[in-house]
Amino acid sequence: MTETTFTPRVFSGIQPSGDLHLGNYLGALKRFADAQDKGVQSIYCMVDLHAITVPQNPADLKRSTRELAAGFIASGVSPEKSILINQSQVPEHAQLAWIFNCVARMGWMGRMTQWKDKAGKNAEAASLGLFAYPALMAADILIYHATHVPVGEDQKQHLELTRDIAAKFNHDYGVDFFPITEPVIEGAATRVMSLRDGAKKMSKSDPSDASRINLTDDADTIAKKIRKAKTDPDALPSEVEGLKDRPEARNLVNIYAGLNDQTVEQVLADHGGQQFGTFKPALAELAVSKIAPISTEMARLMSDVTEIDRLLAHGAEQAREISAPILKKTYEIVGMVG
Ligand code: AMP
Ligand code: TRP
Fold this sequence. Notes:
The chain contains 13 helices and five strands.
């Protein structure tokens, strides 16, 4: 079989299930805007079908989906340069997901750490959708033949499964139809940690609001959360090795590097030797200058939801021009009459 070369195309998604935070921004949104600005065709998605794998209040889901769209745009993802969509408005995602449900194996799904974490001890009571979640995620990506997927570190295992599904489909049907997608997990801040505990990921599900910076926080709140962030009593080292076993210090340096488009080495070259009494105000100033304008812009966009809905309808139309022919060809390969 000859190797097909696939045109580079970027796809990524975020769940509309609550407030966006600095981890989403540095691990995902900011990097989506960077990828788009490199000129590669990019498709970014609010994954509302993924959100309902756990119970959602319908009115909140609607609001969160629009707010996420505003978050994408305010973070620099342009609906003119990228295709911006809401998952359920492009039905081919769910249609391909069914095919992938029949390709993926129960054993593969059962090994996913996100499934184990979210289902917890009571897996019997979890939804079937939560178990099948990664097959829908593979469909999101492969319905566009996307080749590159920028995400945070926590999504690595799901992307490996996406590769397994593509490879098994290609193998079972003797085709070279789906690309083997590359995860793009890079930069200083692929795993932003809680501001209260350097061993825990910054997450919207942390009960303490002080543990994260929300993209909707105002300047004062951002500065205050950084001032109060947990640290240790030592000065910053001038070499990366000096951050070993100092998770809180490492996290703040990573955040600085991510926000300022620098490497950790560069940040330490500039700030090594400083006490946190000096470094934290510098970080607070940087974070306020980058994050506060996003929150202002999100609020502005949210004041006109009709415009957001119009942009999403337009995105869905553009997306379907790519997804519909790929689904048609998939059905042909599988043997559906049509
Ligand atoms: P979620 O909010 O879990 O749907 O995640 C949306 C995107 O943000 C995914 O690409 C995640 O990998 C990324 N992400 C979430 N939390 C973090 C974090 N603490 N650090 C870096 N990236 C994150
Ligand atoms: N599972 C991802 C998360 O929780 C969201 C997601 C759904 C996604 N489909 C995707 C990410 C496709 C990248 C590509 O963050």
